[in-house]
Amino acid sequence: MRWLMPVAASAVVALMAVFVAFNQSADNRLTEEVVSSHIRSRMAEHLTDVASSDQHTVKPWFAARVDFAPPVTDLKEQGFPLAGGRLDYLQNRVVAAEVYKRNDHVINLFVWPASGNRITMKKLSVAKGYNVISWQNSGMNYCAVSELNSVELRQFADLLK
Known about the structure:
The chain has 161 residues and is α+β, with helices and mostly antiparallel strands. It has helices spanning 4-43, 55-63, 150-160; strands spanning 50-51, 82-90, 93-102, 105-113, 124-127, 130-137, 140-146.
């Protein structure tokens, strides 16, 4: 019987380690997915399906093509003008990809409902030389990726939170 307690404790620790590793792995996969989508959008000259700086053009365009209503915000006055949007595919579902600019830099903002596909990343990460920041707000997942420096990408994300 004395051996039962240490064995049970070891089993609990092992299960917790697997859970943590799985969550970190899921975060890493999401980061890799958004960076790959960002790179593809730049390589294939497929940055936007609807090119417009008018949120009242981009938002209805998404509404006609996805099963959720992604918020589209005009951040031109803050130095992040809207360039348009496109459809993309992350975590086994169609997502909205809103495209913003900052000087010569492109920011892809991926948006999809949080229900069922929640993200756990809340901090800035770097993958393949690109900065990625993810968060949740008002029932939506957000993931912004850009070669823009981390300070300005955080500023962009803070404007949307």
